[in-house]
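Sample entry (89 residues):
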Amino acid sequence: MAAPDRELLARYVEAFERYDMAALTALIQEDATQSMPPFELWLARRDDILSWSVGFAAEIEDGRIVEFTFFLTTDTLLPLFGLPARLDS
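Predicted structure, serialized as tokens:
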């Protein structure tokens, strides 16, 4: 991952952890999309993503996030990639 992408990811994680919607808005491209397999959820445009997120990564283009994909089957999916199912605090 290139340095600018790592920096963007760090800013996204920090804003997400703080639930800083203004910071998240600044990071997400206007025409970004979000999906969440296995559900049929597909959101288009930053405003729709943020509206859904308030009730609740990513490809990167021009320094902004353009797509979100959430997987809810992490207990079985993450170990397939050698990743822990949970992170200790």
